[in-house]
Amino acid sequence: MASERRAAFATEEYWGRPLPGFGDKGARMAVVGLAPAAHGGNRTGRVFTGDRSGDWLWAALWRAGLASQPESVSSGDGLEAKGVWVTAAVRCAPPQNRPTPQERDTCLPYLRRELVLLPTVRALLALGAFGYEACCRALGVRKRPAFGHGVEVPLSDGRFIVCSYHPSQQNTFTGKLTAKMLDTVVQRAWELACLGDGVPGNRGAGDLAG
Predict the structure, then answer these.
(1) Which CATH number is associated with domain 18-193?
(2) Are 35 and 128 contacting, i.e. CB atoms less than 8 angstroms apart?
């Protein structure tokens, strides 16, 4: 996919390799998306960076006080995440943004290992049905409610999965997902992530304390 460049990025060197997660290693909340965008994370080397979906996600995290700035355009743009880790179910940009079952299964162990290395994560915000399925498979959740925006799944170990429509252009351009809807579900996931920790569950935009 790195060999197929948009004219606007013709002079840029694409990352073009499996993409790691990004954020706070002491995160209480993890955001799990679908896969790197061909001309977003696959280009920049940072998940949810340099594309419209990333613009929506980081703006929502910033409004919740979980990011130092409302957008991310490159891996060296100074963005900092606080209390949150952002990753994807599939690590390479799939053709037509449709991961195959083989890609899904190949990448699953990486998500499992990533969550093991993030022991303080108490809530997972699953973006889209694909992200939701990946979270459930990674955590061994067998019986679960159907995916839907705002669906909450309490786990036996005290963690939670919270579902959101994916901030893809297909959803944001049509109004299926609005900024207010995304803000609400981000805030709810953060509240659940902080249950019992004595951490404020409501930060303001840019408030990275705590």
Answers:
(1) 3.40.470.10
(2) no
